[in-house]
Every structure is written in structure tokens, then in C-alpha cells.
Design a protein that fits this description.
Length: about 400
């Protein structure tokens, strides 16, 4: 298979050896974690143009300023909220491809702000799908591994040998069912909204011929993920686990293990995952009409093991001793509130992405944590010291 790696802008070819034509990409949610890495990659290694849409741009400021950056003129920021902005259709019309990343996607919101979560992940995405379909524009939509919900194996007795059989837990795009909890478990508001928008996009493809690709990310992690509470986000905010544990480590506090940290996750390095998205962008004939799991099945840990590894890695990169009490158990009700529930295990099947795009992740969990926690320490350690030293107003 020919490589689509950068060998000088004009010589870049797709996986079938055809020259890659520069595209104009309307990227919605470009100011977030994934968007910022995708913009970085597209600017530094390709000739594509990006119309970057978001309500915030802090994470892509370094790509927008100063004016003498090598990609000057290829990325423009449009501050807008897709809930209510008449510029959206025009920007989609001006582009060859739309990538929709915009979402509320932090689990602490799913059970506490279910209406916002459903609106953000379903209702707000509707016009994007409609404008792409009506204007014959290609869409890459970001869904989630959460659409699989719980594994079939989780319903078997604890001591059943079938729990060890991959048929009962590996998650396959075209075979696995979507298994959510009951309605009062509002955790599933996000997964359910994502599932319905996937079904709508799929139906637009089937009935109206819309060109689409659906991405199901499996816990992509790396620098710039979420925020550190009290530094660049609200003090009471609860980000995703990487930022929660980073915050605990930076403050020398025990890491909180929800319900004992028994849930399992596979983590993939953001830079590996962005390679997969770039392949989708540049190989439409191979990516259109497909749903892709994007994860790293070799990086599976329980949340407890993740915490233990992060404690070791942080100690190495910061030179600081681990906290005296490294971890504490908290109930999910105490940590997330009523209506929380969890995915037990998430192993992506890689057959489709291997076959269509020849993609495989490269980075081990230890290595990705080492580069990410080096970034967290360099970016936040001084700011945290100042926050801790500040007297609390009485
Ligand atoms: N990071 C992961 O591991 C992961 C896993 C599963 C799914 N996803 C999906 O990938 C996408 C991107 O995730 P992320 O981790 O970069 O999240 P993020 O929160 O960092 O980025 C989302 C961005 O969308 C923007 N946005 C939200 N609503 C908007 C609106 N109405 N108008 C304009 N901009 C809006 C936000 O300001 C934010 O910058 C989401 O759809 C998420 O559900 C991510
Ligand atoms: O301080 C903490 C924070 C979290 N946990 C537990 O860690 C597990 C993973 O949590 P998190 O990364 O926050 O989120 P999920 O993996 O559950 O869900 C995400 O997956 C993909 C995505 O769609 C978008 O990123 C999102 O929904 C979990 O078991 C928490 O309970 C902890 O122990 N301590």
C-alpha cells in the first residue's frame, strides 16, 4: 500500500497512488482537543485549507497568530455557535468536506445536564447533516465508542468462562449491538443521541446518496485534553479521566477511583488517532459509507491500573514523590451524582480500519502518558502552585 505521509507538499499521494488535491475543510468544533490536533496536522503536513468553527479558539491560537506562520491564509477562525448562526450553511457550501466535532462530551454532564447533552449531540448536529446532504457535500461525523454501551459479556455470571471469549466483548462496527441502561440512568443520554445521529447520517447515505464517514473514537488522550479545574476551567468542573488524574497529581492529591476503578478502557495516543483521520480525509473512496472504530486494543487497563501508571510516570517526569495516599475509592453517586452508569470494557475491533485504510496505532500507554504528563507538568505546575498559595476569600 502506498503511503500518504508527507514527502513535500506537491508529491503527496493517497493510498492508491493518486496525487492528493488540496481541499477546503469546514471543521466544526476545531477549537477543542481533537480539533486542535487535527488543525495542527493539516497545517504542518498538508496543503488543505481549514475554516475553523468554534465558540472558543484558545487551543488553536498558536496556529492563528502571528501572521508570518508558514500556513498563513490556510486557516481562518470563525467564532460561531452552530445552535443559532446563519453563517453555517454558507461555510459548508464553500467547503469540499465538513468535519463535525462539536459536542458536549464529558461524562459528568450526561446525567447532570441531559437536555443540553441531547441537544448538543443530536439536535444541533441536524442542520449540519441537512446542509451537507442538500448541497452534496461530504461529511465526516464524530460519534463515539459509547454507542456500544455495555458488553454482552457484562450480563453473564461473574464466573462464566464465556466472559473470556472475545465474541462477548470485542466491539465490531457492523455486528455489535448497542446496549444502554434504563432511561433513569441518564448517563446514556449522550450515547443514545450519538446513536440516533449516526442512524440519521446512515439513512441520508442510503436514501439520498450523501457521502459520509462516521468515526467512533475509543478514549483518545494527549496534551490539551479538557481543562485543569481552577486553572483553565471552572474549579468545580469535572473533566474526563486524564485531566481529573492530572489535576490530582499536580496538586499532590490522591487520585479518585470511581466505584473502585474496575471499569476497563483502551487508550490511544491522539497523534496516532489523528493519522487515522487524515487517511479518512485523503482517501474518500476508501472511507465513504464506513463507520470506523479508532482505538488501540493493545493499551487496555482498568482505571485503577491507569491511575497507578500515571502516578509512576508523573513521578518520573516531575521528579516529585507520589502522594502518601496515592488513590482513594469514591462511589459514582458521590463523584458524578444520580443517574451515572458505566461502560464495563471497550476493546475496538480493528478489521474495518485495517482493511480500508491500513491504519494501526503505534504508541504504548506508557509512552503516551510520558509525553502527555510532561506536557501537563510543563504547562500547569507553576500555575497550580500560584492557585494553591492564593488565600481563599472569606
Ligand atoms: N476525545 C475522545 O476520546 C472522544 C471519544 C469519543 C468521542 N469523541 C467525540 O469527538 C468529538 C470531539 O471531542 P473532543 O474530545 O475534541 O471534545 P472537546 O470538548 O475538546 O471539543 C468539542 C469542541 O466543540 C465545540 N462546540 C461544542 N458545541 C458547539 C457549538 N454549539 N457551536 C460551536 N462549537 C461547539 C466546543 O467549544 C469544543 O471546542 C466529539 O463529538 C466527541 O463526542 C471524542
Ligand atoms: O477522577 C476520575 C474520573 C473518571 N474515572 C473513571 O474513569 C473512566 C473513564 O472516564 P472518562 O475518560 O472521563 O470517560 P468515559 O471513558 O467513561 O467516557 C468517554 O469515552 C468517550 C467519550 O465519548 C468522549 O470522550 C466519553 O463519553 C470511567 O470509568 C470513570 O468512572 C475515575 O475513576 N476517576
Amino acid at each position: 500500500m502506498a503511503s500518504s505521509a508527507s514527502v513535500g507538499a506537491s508529491a503527496r499521494v493517497d493510498l492508491d497512488g493518486n496525487p492528493i488535491k488540496p481541499l477546503t475543510i469546514c471543521m466544526i468544533g476545531a477549537g477543542g482537543f481533537i480539533g486542535s490536533h487535527l488543525c495542527e496536522k493539516l497545517m504542518s503536513e498538508t496543503q488543505h485549507k481549514v475554516l475553523a468553527l468554534d465558540v472558543y479558539n484558545d487551543k488553536i491560537k498558536h496556529l492563528l497568530e502571528p501572521d508570518n506562520l508558514p500556513w498563513h491564509g490556510r486557516i481562518t477562525f470563525h467564532r460561531l455557535n452552530i445552535k443559532h448562526d446563519s453563517r453555517l450553511e454558507g461555510l459548508i457550501k464553500m467547503s469540499d468536506l465538513t468535519i463535525n466535532l462539536a459536542a458536549i462530551c464529558t461524562p459528568a454532564d450526561y446525567n447532570t445536564r441531559p437536555l443540553d447533552t441531547i441537544y448538543s449531540n443530536f439536535i444541533d448536529a441536524l442542520p449540519v447533516v441537512k446542509y451537507c446532504s442538500e448541497n452534496n457535500k461530504r461529511l465526516i461525523h464524530f460519534s463515539t465508542c459509547e454507542v456500544y454501551g455495555k458488553t454482552i459479556g457484562s450480563f453473564l455470571p461473574k464466573d462464566s468462562p464465556l466472559r473470556q471469549d472475545p465474541a462477548y466483548y470485542v466491539l465490531k462496527e457492523d455486528e455489535s449491538p448497542c446496549i444502554f441502561g434504563s432511561i433513569e440512568k441518564q448517563r446514556w443520554s449522550y450515547a443514545c443521541a450519538k446513536q440516533l445521529i449516526e442512524r440519521l447520517i446512515y439513512a441520508e447515505g442510503a436514501e439520498n446518496g450523501m457521502e459520509f464517514t462516521i468515526v467512533r473514537p475509543f478514549n483518545w488522550i494527549g496534551p490539551r485534553m479538557d481543562f485543569i479545574p481552577g486553572v483553565d476551567g471552572p474549579s468545580e468542573g469535572v473533566p474526563r479521566v486524564l485531566a481529573c488524574f492530572s489535576n490530582n497529581l499536580l496538586r499532590g492529591q490522591p487520585l479518585k477511583l470511581v466505584d473502585g476503578g474496575q471499569s476497563q478502557r483502551t487508550f490511544v495516543y491522539i497523534k496516532d488517532a489523528i493519522e487515522a483521520v487524515t487517511l479518512m480525509i485523503e482517501n474518500p473512496a476508501r472511507a465513504n459509507g464506513h463507520i470506523f472504530n479508532v482505538g488501540n486494543p493493545n493499551n487496555e487497563v482498568t482505571v485503577r491500573q491507569l491511575a497507578e501508571m500515571m502516578i509512576k510516570v508523573y513521578s518520573k517526569v516531575s521528579g516529585e514523590q507520589p502522594p502518601e495516599t496515592p488513590t482513594i475509592d469514591v462511589s459514582s453517586k458521590e463523584f458524578y451524582g444520580e443517574g451515572y452508569d458505566d461502560s464495563d470494557k471497550r476493546i475496538p475491533d480493528m478489521t474495518t480500519i485495517n482493511r480500508q485504510l491500513g491504519w494501526n496505532p503505534k504508541t504504548s500507554l506508557w509512552d503516551l502518558l510520558e509525553s502527555t504528563l510532561t506536557y501537563q507538568h510543563r504547562t500547569y505546575a507553576e500555575a497550580i502552585k500560584k492557585v494553591i498559595a492564593k488565600p481563599v476569600a472569606s
